[in-house]
């Protein structure tokens, strides 16, 4: 079984949907796909994407991204209700939202959000970042509480689906550490760093014994190894980003 990874499909764009439809229906029938969030904020498009991918892969594993939890177009009370609806859609389409085991390989999704452990947002970011308008949380939820709502649901070792696995791959939509962002990022673009992720995810993936972690969200594709863990971002991205995102599936592991 080969394991592939992609994130940030953003199926709201017609060209992204067209790419998905032309994906081979035969080549990946014995393979698994890690889908690291940001598929669509529309439940109908999310379902369409899940169905298309399940028609092509033996197993699809998914964790929601921030776009998936926007409530501005689906009439949900808040983003917690949207999260439950998104999970229900995934489960109905036989998409894995819990740890997955294949032989000696375990793949574990890590839910998350951002808690400003990468820095404090400035007034520009608070005005420009769409989540502040498109997400809605129950009364009393600040960003730290939102992050804890998600990260408290993540698996801990030992887990029956993970215990004894010789290879553990974890994945999240959000970044687990800010040094995954390359030094070349211009200062003006670093304003978004506070909303990229949480150090809680780094602690959790280390506790699980992960040797490979797939993430999305930043749309800055790269692969690097830090302190014994290989981190991989393979964002599909917006059509306007075709000149620097791969816009392809990435083969990250083969399990006998």
UniProtKB/TrEMBL annotation:
It comes from the Bacteria. SUPFAM superfamilies: Metallo-dependent phosphatases. InterPro entries: Calcineurin-like_PHP, Metallo-depent_PP-like, Pantetheine_PDE. One of its GO terms (molecular function) is hydrolase activity. Residues 1-220 form the Calcineurin-like phosphoesterase domain. This is Calcineurin-like phosphoesterase domain-containing protein. It comes from Dyella psychrodurans. The lineage of its organism: Bacteria, Pseudomonadati, Pseudomonadota, Gammaproteobacteria, Lysobacterales.
